[in-house]
Amino acid sequence: MKAIAALNLAGLLLAPPVVAAAPAMMAARPPTTKIEGVVASATPTELDITAKDGSKVAVALTTHTRIALSMPISIDEIKAGSFIGAGAQADGKGGNTAVEITVFPESARGRGEGFHKWDEGPNSTMTNGTVSQVVGTSNRTLTVTYKGGQQKVTIPAGTPIVTFANADASALTAGAHVVVRGFKLPNGSVSAGFVSVGKDGSVPPG
Predict the structure, then answer these.
(1) For residues 88 and 153, is the Cβ–Cβ distance under 8 A?
(2) Residue 125: is it exposed, middle or buried by C-beta count within 10 angstroms (0-12/13-18/19+)?
(3) Rounded mean pLDDT, 35-54
């Protein structure tokens, strides 16, 4: 789930709450950041994370932090009518090759619907929409429909496919794999808006 996605999972999966602010306050908003790594320790108000690059990052959890439990599922769970988020790379032929797929629970249907740029390189895309057609048994190709258009998304073998459920801080235990999106504070720490945590040791999509 990156950038918009992360509902996604992309912030689109469970985007942090939006607070109205005057233009001057908006200009002062701290920069957003994403951290992927493993929980070293956790309290109800803070995570200490060992990031993928080996650095240590302190992450503050607040009453506004949203937490989602990411769960791997089979490609067979993607059916016509499923609402998905497809992080992909444009294939240069008018289609998209999936890097990760999130199948949204029914309660999140419609979240972030549309076709967007993604933050995994200049040719990366994010499509959130309803699967209208599934073709093939391996390297399946989906037609994903959204308001105003549709995209073809091919899913190579081995592509991570997950769904998610709302969770709380009790899911954030030492050794869990997480993706954190939040604001970087002047002291170098991060205030989390959204945390995706992998179930049973799984690694959530970024």
Answers:
(1) yes
(2) buried
(3) 96
List of residues 6+ apart from 156 with CB closer than 8 A: 97, 98, 139
Please tell me what DSSP assigns to residue 27. Answer: H
The number of helices, as runs of H, and strands, as runs of E, in the chain is 1, 13
Minimum mean pLDDT range among 56-65, 118-127, 142-151 = 118-127
What is the distance of C-alpha 159 from the center of its chain?
14
**What's the CA angle centered on 119, arms 93 and 142, to 5 degrees?**
40
Mark 58-91 as b/e (b = at least 16 C-beta within 10 Å). ebebeeebbbbbbeeeeeeebeeebbbbbbbbbe
24 membership: H or E segment, kind and range: helix 23-27
Q: What is the pLDDT of residue 87?
A: 95
For residues 143-150, give the mean pLDDT: 97
